[in-house]
Amino acid sequence: MTSRTPLRALTAAATALLVLTGGTACSTEGAGADPDRVDVVAAFYPLQFVAERVGGDAVTVTNLAKPGAEPHDLELNPRQVGQVSEAELVFYLKGFQPAVDEAVAQNAGDRAFDVTTVAPLRDATADGHDHEGEDGHAEESGGKDPHLWLDPTRLATVADRLAERLGAVDPDRAADYTTRARTLRGELEKLDTEYTAGLKTCQRREIVVSHAAFGYLAERYQLEQIGLTGLTPDTEPAPQRLAEVAREAREHRATTIFFETLVSPKVAETIAAEVGAKTAVLDPIEGLSADGGGDYLSVMRTNLTTLRTALGCS
Ligand SMILES: [Zn+2]
Ligand SMILES: [Zn+2]
After folding, report:
1. Nearest to 93 by CA among 141, 134, 53, 50
2. How far is the CA of 144 from the centre of ligand 1 (A)?
């Protein structure tokens, strides 16, 4: 198959032949499906961002997580399960959203692309902000940390692999996917350079955050993450943990307790009041806020500005 544009004009027989010979873009007959584009379902925002950038006008991307909603505990309605069944590619991160994992296992067959197959995830326990001779505050031990998109260099590698996968689904445009992934890699590497320079010389390196989403960011830029809760934001921290974090915040002279756009700031405000710090948004970019605006790159740059102020970077 050389071009998709004339497909609509083809006779039924020719279309049937194309399907038999493996023409993928012709196979989706779902309502509203554009036969000229590859239908990609992305499980949450950073994957949507990568799919749109790598896919360009050759794909239609549907995000299962709605703006303004926290995606960890996403529930799928029957229509969305149908989207997973009908997509030509389901782009997801196994272990991040149980409902998506289940829908993929039951409905996506070999049409799923799991981000965790690109590179091994960090161990959650590798978060260790421990002091010599103290008990570490072990979080959910044994778990894997899914928040890899907060390291732009890792996200660039995910984009490269997605380009290969899209090229396999849609070989005619494989070179376009590769080119767009390379462009995105350039932008992500520029962002990485800004982070490295911007966080090079700081008065503090500890970040007190609401859920432990910043492990990859901390690892990449030599910060120390102190999370009020573990890898998911849905648990209320125990009073003992609050006291522990307050002690850490005082000890490291934290000026700022970070909270997230998609989760209540109440606990962060409580700690901040107790230790005499401010609060500020440090966005884990699990989803864009409902009032939208910006994209992965712009939110990452806002985060960098926020970090530089809070940590006293020169
Ligand atoms: Zn998270
Ligand atoms: Zn400490």
Report:
1. 50
2. 11
212: nearest Cα among 285, 280, 116, 139:
139
Ligand located closest to 229 CA: 1
Token pair belonging to 37: 């584009």
Bridge partners of residue 91, in order along the sequence: 42, 113
| C-beta separation of 308 from 205 below 8 A | no
Q: What pTM did the predictor assign?
A: 0.86
Ligand nearest to C-alpha 44: 1
User: Who contacts 30 (Cβ-Cβ below 8 Å, separation ≥6)?
Assistant: 39, 82, 86
Residue 294's CB is within 10 A of a number of other CB atoms, namely: 14
Greatest alpha-carbon pair distance for the chain in Å reads 76
Distance 192 CA to ligand 1 centre (A): 21
Which phi-psi region, left, alpha or beta, contains residue 287 (left: φ > 0; alpha: ψ -120 to 50)? beta
Q: Which of 21-25, 103-107, 192-196 has the lowest mean pLDDT?
A: 21-25
